[in-house]
Specification:
Elements: H1 2-21, E1 32-35, E2 47-52, E3 55-60, E4 62-63, E5 68-75, E6 79-86, E7 91-94, E8 97-100, E9 109-112, E10 124-129, E11 132-137, E12 139-140, E13 145-152, E14 155-162, E15 169-170, E16 173-174
């Protein structure tokens, strides 16, 4: 009888242990995964957090080389995965994301200090053309011809103009 009682106690203990370990509240809880850049987004440095059994592990996107990013992302919202991706042409990896390396194009601009083709006013045209800065003053080509600078469609232009009758060109001005 004592053996039967002992086996009964052992059996009940095993059943309690199995119930507690397999869904009775003490088993393994499912993990959760969140990604700050919402997936495989190589243009944004992201952070993946996986929480399982109350412990959170963090994984940060990082550059493997100057053109390859290591990207962490979530699968099915419960675990993390990792992928290496090459940055697109014109991009480089910096701080865990692919960022553009080419500067934005500089727009052409032109300003004329005397407001156009006025031979009796000294002027300077200045601005940026094809990405290069410029500044050009009106000047005398000869004693009676002025090189008059002006702007047209944000581009620098010049025109040789003969000074009016009985005037000469001096210092970039007809007078």
């Amino acid at each position: 009888m004592q053996k039967k009682y002992l086996f009964f106690i052992i059996g009940i203990s095993l059943i309690i242990a199995l119930v507690a370990g397999c869904g009775g509240g003490g088993g393994i809880s499912p993990s959760t995964c969140t990604d700050s850049d919402n997936g495989q987004n190589i243009l944004v440095a992201g952070q993946v957090k996986v929480t399982s059994d109350g412990t959170t592990t963090t994984y940060n996107d990082a550059c493997k080389t100057d053109t390859v990013v290591g990207e962490y992302y979530c699968v099915a919202g419960s675990y993390s995965a990792y992928n290496s991706s090459r940055c697109p042409v014109g991009y480089a990896c910096q701080n865990g994301a692919c960022v553009t390396t080419s500067p934005p194009p500089i727009q052409d601009s032109c300003t004329d200090s005397d407001g156009g083709i006025f031979t009796n006013v000294f002027g300077t045209i200045s601005g940026v053309y094809w990405g290069a800065p410029f500044s050009v003053n009106d000047y005398c080509e000869s004693s009676d011809i002025i090189a008059e600078g002006y702007c047209s469609n944000n581009a620098p232009n010049s025109q040789f103009v003969r000074c009016p009758l009985n005037q000469t060109c001096q210092g970039g001005v007809c007078g």
